[in-house]
Amino acid sequence: MKTVINKELLFIHFEGRTTPLQIELLREWLQTPEHQQLYYQWLQEWERQHPQIITDADDAYQQFLQQIDTTPQPVVVRPIAMWNRWRPGAYWMAASVVLLLLTVGYLTRDYWMMRTIATDYGEIRSIVLSDGTRVTLNANSELQLSRFAFLTPSREVFLKGEAEFAVVHTSAHDQFKVHAANDVEVVVLGTEFVVNARRNTTRVELTKGKVQLRYPTQDQISTLTMRPGDWVNVSAGGKAKRGHQVLEPAVATGWKNYEYTFQRTPMPEIADLLNDNFGLTVQLDSALARRKVTGTFHAHNADELLQALIELFDIEVVRDGKAVQLKSSDPNQIQ
């Protein structure tokens, strides 16, 4: 009977209860990228269900040294090697276990080296990094940072989604780098800005201080300096568009308070927002796709934002789970 590789078996493996045969099957199963992604996903789930105790490393090390000093040293009896009794099958089994451990360690190195902080659809989360920098993550966003500060020469994070950064200036003038889509880097010393890295485009909006933006073009790395109120969009291929923010700076971060401000914003962009922040797939009819929205709306969830649009326009809503169809009752009325 063939062993099925599933989440239950992986959980048993994380607890150290797999047999040598199961370990060999896992090693073969991990050869495909899809299985590697599943392994990483289930490992995160298992770790959330089995939280580890976080201790003071220095204190634990000192206790360990004291324990060594006070523990009687056992008498070690070295057995005589009996190579003629070592079966070849046991040798290959041990080698396969070591190879699996090395394979798993290599394939999941990003997990062990990097710490990931993520938000779900509709969730907003504020965190403070070890250097005092405050990061507010918008819904459906992910921030990666090193688990071990001594492994990185500077303060660096990797962003997927949208976040506001309030970077603390250090006495050593250490740079703070945000890596986003399309190999865009935002380099700062101490300032406040918003980065939106979605849909193969990175948008940076500066509210305070000064930042340096780096992004690749065809044959070089382009650099530009941003001042408060500036915004820059960088799309695939290094195409950059720059402008100055006409709205109040707080508008860029209104989502922190569940507020969404639109100024003649096309409905397709609002449909994208519903998808990015709340996971809805929105289909617009041709009349609604031509409409634009102006106003500020307070919405904690997708239903509240949809209700605001219904009150603003004469809209028919057909919803099936995460799929939403919006239809205009009067196709001739275009705002």
Key features of this structure:
335 residues, alpha+beta, Jelly Rolls, 13-stranded mixed β-sheet, 31% helix
Approximate shape: globular
Describe the biggest sheet? Answer: 13 strands, mixed
Number of beta strands: 18
CATH architecture of the largest domain: Sandwich
What fraction of the residues are assigned to beta strands by DSSP? 25-35%
- Distance from first to last alpha carbon: 65 Å
What is the number of domains? 3
Name the average pLDDT.
79
Report the total helices.
10
Your description of this structure?
- This protein is α+β, with helices and mostly antiparallel strands.
- The chain folds into three domains: 87 residues, no CATH class; 133 residues, Jelly Rolls (Sandwich), CATH 2.60.120; 71 residues, Phage tail protein beta-alpha-beta fold (3-Layer(bab) Sandwich), CATH 3.55.50.30.
- Helix content is 31%, strand content 33%.
- The protein contains ten helices and 18 strands.
- The strands form three sheets. Strands 1, 2, 3, 4, 5, 6, 7, 8, 9, 10, 11, 12 and 13 form a 13-stranded mixed β-sheet that branches. A three-stranded mixed β-sheet has the order 15-18-17.
- Strand 2 and strand 3 form a beta hairpin.
